[in-house]
Each structure stands twice: as structure tokens, then as C-alpha cells.
Amino acid sequence: MRNVFDFVAVRAAGRRPGGFKTAICGGVIAVVALAGCAPADTEMAANYAQVSPEVGGPSVVRRLTRHQYRTIIKDLFGSSIVVGGPFEPDVRESGLLAVGASKVSIASTGLDGYNKMARIIAAQVFDEDHRGMLLGCEPANADEPDDACAREFLGRVGRLMYRRPLTDDELQSRVNVANESAKTRGNFYLGLETSLVTMLVSPNFLFVHESSEPDPLHAGLERLDAYSKAVRLSFFFWNNAPDEALLAAAEDGSLHTQKGLEAQVSRMLGSPQMESGIRAFFTDMLEFELFDTLSKDQVLFPKFNFTLAEAAKEQTLRTIVDHLLVKKGDYRGLYTTPNTFLTRPLAAVYQVPLSGLAKKWVPYEYPAGVQHAGILSQVSFVSLHSHPARTSPTLRGKALREVLLCQKVPDPPGAVNFDIIQDVTNVNFRTVRQRLDAHASEPMCVGCHKITDPMGLALENFDTIGGFRSSENGAPIDTS
């Protein structure tokens, strides 16, 4: 079997057969193995061995997602720096916002928004409460330009922002902006503020791009340069820009050695930022941004509110982190594990007696035989893929196909009649299974419903906010 670290050293060459799905397959297997969870069976091991590390797909330019932007600003300048908005909308591609980042640009109105954010951020960085901690040097005279102090700050911060050292010309240009602005505004800190704004709206910051260089070990092929490899590693594992240690490994060349690469990957896997990366990936994959606009019928489901929605997301993420990172569990166990975490509002939905709790999280293990097990039975999944007042095996089955199996389900034709499905008062069709069977008898509907409904019906014991039920409108629910 190939060394798993080879998968990180993907070369920037032509696209190989298999494309995106092959790349994702290799990446997932690599992450599982790197985390200490080697492929659990012969089939997985065979798939792992078949993924060639020799040729990678073309490098693409990606715009920072809003999550990445916020995280980078927090790491650069501290959590007290307020990042406003609005951001340019993220676009989902091949199931992920992170992939869609390569399909988007910045419109003129969006650039104006980034410029406003940059001004707000820079003003905070250089206010009296922050500049002493963040600047790292003091000007000889705060009322005048200070070339040396400006150069030190802009070079250090620019290296982290651009994810590589600034060229001499780039650094000199930023210093010139700071000095000229300091003269115009009569203040050294205001001059640096202006220069920082220009860096925050620079494509070198807002977009992630990778560069290649000739591969000395393979004539005629290209490899990622050291800083681009650092960028690929950091966004892959942490969903964040490279830290100082990773940039240092790129600078001294050790990242191009097997020993140096293994050392950095091992360090990154053991870093607290790994949890942040895992959370970001599953937040993206499970489409948790949809919670921003999710609503439920308050007459039928008064327990559902903003607090419950936020707790639902956090429950799933805590379950994932605990299973994968803390317990080093098999990824597949996420869908069967009885172990989770609860708050009092969640316990009320799950009908679990947890007395004396408010917002405090407590670990909980469902007894054997209880239906609530695995992340697909949690409030987050079943509520996201339901209607405000009723469940939808079709939406849930569609999500299972598209989110977990990467299988695109066709959109319904425009002339579909949904009256049978939506009429929950019809005594002849009391359960959603009965209504779907009647609806799917229409020729234009049957094909897609065969793809989605059998999987979604398996989750019909969970109502639209995740509570367990055994009947609907007085009729027993059949989940077979």
C-alpha cells in the first residue's frame, strides 16, 4: 500500500480520469488513515491502493468562504475584532460550498462590501485598545511616518495574509501607502490603517491560488511550490490559512521532504485547529447554513425555535468530533452510534428525562433498542429536510442521495400536481406513505420517487423536528 502522505503531495498537472469523485475518494481515505483509522476492510484498502498520487487535477483559484474569512481575521488580530458583512454569497458546487468557491468571483457591489469590512477591521486593529498588542513595534513619532515600524508590521502580517512572503516590490508598495497616508492624515497609525485596508481587499488575500514549479524528481512534471503545498494542507485539514510553523517549513524547504511533510501533517492532526476543520467540513457537507432560514409551524411544533436550532447543529458537530477525534472511531459509526450530547431543549424533543439542565451540555448514551441513534436521527438532519408542518420522505431521501452518496436527484417537472401529498386531511391517505404511493402512481413522478422515497420512509418515525412517533393521523407508520 502506498504511503498515505503521498496523497498530500498532489502534483499540479493535467486532470486524470475519474476527476472530482476520484480526488475526493482519495482525500477521504487519506484523512481516515492519517487520523489513525486505517481502512477497516479489504474493499476500502483496495480502493485506497488504486488512487494514484502521481497526477493531480488542475489548480483552481478559490474565493475565501465567509467562514474562512472570519476565521483568518480572528487568528490574525484576535477574537475581539468585529467582522461585519455582508459577504458575497457562497455557491454550492458538487455538494460543498468549499468547492463552489472556485466558481465565484466578486462583483462591484461585493467589492464595495469587502472594502467597508476592511475599513472597519483596520480601524479596530489600530485603535488604542488593540494596536499595542498587535503592532509589535512603536513609531519614533506617532504624528509622522515610520518606515522601519511600518515595514516590520506589514511584512509580518502580510506574510500571513497572503500565505507567503511579500515580494520586495509588494512590501515597498504597502510601506509607501502607509507613509503617504500618514503624512496626509497626520498620524502613523492611521497611515498603517490605510495600508492594511488595501491588503484586506487585495486578490492575494481574498482568493486562494496555488503556484507550481518544476518537479526535480519527475522530469516534465510540475509540483506545488512549498507555500502552495502549505496552503493546500492548511485549508484541507483546518479550513484555515497556514500558521507560522507551516510557513516556516515551506520557507526552509523541509515541507518538500518526506520527513518534513510527515512532521507537519502529524502536528496539524494533533492541533486544536483540527477540530475546527472537522466542524467546518461537516457544517458545509450537511448544509447547516440552511438553518438560517429554517422555520416550523409554531402551532404544531412550539418547541422549535432559534435556541433549539442552534443546539441541533451543535449536537451533531459535538457527536462527530467526539466520535472521530476523541474516540478515533470509524467514520461509518457516525450513523449508528448511541453516544451523543444533549441540552434540556433537545432532551424535550427526544423525550429524554434530563432534569436540572438549562443550556449545559451533557454526554448521553441511548439505551439499546432506542430509535434515536446516529446523526441521521438527530434534530439537525430530519428537521432540515422536512416541511414546516409535515415530514417529507422525498426531501430526506433526496438529501441522503445527494449529501451522503453524491448522487444528483433530478428536479421535479414543472407541471407536477402536489395536491394529494399536501392534503393531510384525506381519511383515505392518513400517512405520508399512502399519500406518496398515490402521488407516485403518476407516470412523470414514479421514476424519481423510486430513487428517494424508500430511503426517506425509513426515517418516518421522526417528525418534522425530530421527535419520535409511531403513528400519523391515528394510522400506524410503516418504515419498511
What brief labels describe this structure?
disordered N terminus; two-stranded antiparallel sheet; about 50% helix; mainly alpha; about 475 residues; two-stranded antiparallel ribbon
How many structurally independent domains? Answer: 3
Strand order of the largest sheet: 1-2
The tally of helices reads 21
Strand content bin: under 5%
Spans where pLDDT lies below 50 across 5 or more residues: 1-40
Radius of gyration: 26 Å
Mean pLDDT, nearest integer?
A: 85
Order of helices and strands: HHEHHHHHHHHEEEHHHHHEHEHHHHHEE
Could you explain the architecture of this structure?
This protein has helices at residues 19-34, 42-50, 66-77, 97-100, 108-125, 131-134, 147-162, 168-185, 188-200, 203-206, 226-237, 244-251, 258-269, 273-285, 306-326, 344-350, 379-384, 393-404, 419-422, 432-439, 443-457, and strands at residues 62-63, 207-208, 212-214, 222-224, 339-342, 362-365, 471-472, 475-476. It has 480 residues and is mainly α. The protein has three domains: 1-59, no CATH class; 62-208, no CATH class; 288-476, no CATH class. It has a two-stranded antiparallel ribbon. A hairpin with a 7-residue loop joins strand 3 (212-214) and strand 4 (222-224).
Give the gist of this structure.
This protein folds into three domains: 1-59, no CATH class; 62-208, no CATH class; 288-476, no CATH class. The chain is built from 21 helices and eight strands.
SSE map:
Layout: H1 19-34, H2 42-50, E1 62-63, H3 66-77, H4 97-100, H5 108-125, H6 131-134, H7 147-162, H8 168-185, H9 188-200, H10 203-206, E2 207-208, E3 212-214, E4 222-224, H11 226-237, H12 244-251, H13 258-269, H14 273-285, H15 306-326, E5 339-342, H16 344-350, E6 362-365, H17 379-384, H18 393-404, H19 419-422, H20 432-439, H21 443-457, E7 471-472, E8 475-476
Antiparallel strand pairs: 1-2, 3-4, 5-6, 7-8
Helix pairs in contact: 5-9, 7-8, 7-9, 8-9, 11-12, 14-15, 18-21
